[in-house]
Amino acid sequence: MLGAAIPVDPDADTARRWLTDELTNPVYHTSPSLLERFLTWLGSLLDGISVAGLSVSWSAVVVSAAVVVTVAVAVAVAGPVRASRRAGTRPGVLVDDVRTADQLVAGAAGAAARGDFVTATLDAFRALVRRSEERVLLDPRPGRTAHEAALELAPRFPDQAVSLRESAAVFDSLLYGTTTADAGSYASVAGLEATLHARRPVPVADRKVATA
Q1: pLDDT tens digit string along 107-121?
Q2: What sections of the protein cross the membrane (predicted)?
Q3: In this structure, are residues 66 and 42 in contact, taking their beta carbons and an 8 Å threshold?
Q4: pTM of the entire predicted model
C-alpha cells in the first residue's frame, strides 16, 4: 500500500531524495520533457516550504502530497512506455534456429503427433520462411519477423497473400502467448507451407527467379 510506504512526516530533503531515486528509473527517460518540467516545479515547491513560514504539520502535508503526485505521474508515464515497448518489439521467426526447412517440417509433424500444436504451428511457419530462404525468395535474415516475411512473400504468391498474413498473425499470437493452437491451426499453416513449396513463384524484378 502506498500509504504504508510513506513516512508520516518526511522533510523536504527526504522528499527530494525520493523523487530523484524514483525518476532515475530508465523506463521514464523516454518521456523526459514532461518529467523534467514536473521535477523543476516540484523542486521549487519543496524549496519554498523552508521559506514560506509553514508550520511543521502543514509542511508534512504538502511534502506527502507532492510525493503521492510524483508516484502517480511516474506510473502514468511508465505504463504507456512499457506497453509501447511490448507492442513495438517482434522477435524474428528464425532467431537462433539453424534447422533446414525439411527438419522444421519434420519437427512440426513430430510436435503435432505429440499433441503439442503450439510448437507444431510455430515450426510449420518457420519451415515456410526457411524454405523461402533456401529457394532464394527471401534473403537470409534471422531477425525477420513473421509480418515482414508475409509482406515480402505476398508479391511472389499473390493468391496466398491473405493466408500468409493470417498465418503470420497466428505465429505472433502463439509466440506472445495471447492465444493457443489446435490441430486446425497446425493444419492450416503446414498446408500453406506445402502449397508454397509446390508452387512456382511469380517473378519479381531484381531478384533471382527460383525454380526449386
Answers
A1: 999 999 999 999 999
A2: 56-81
A3: yes
A4: 0.57
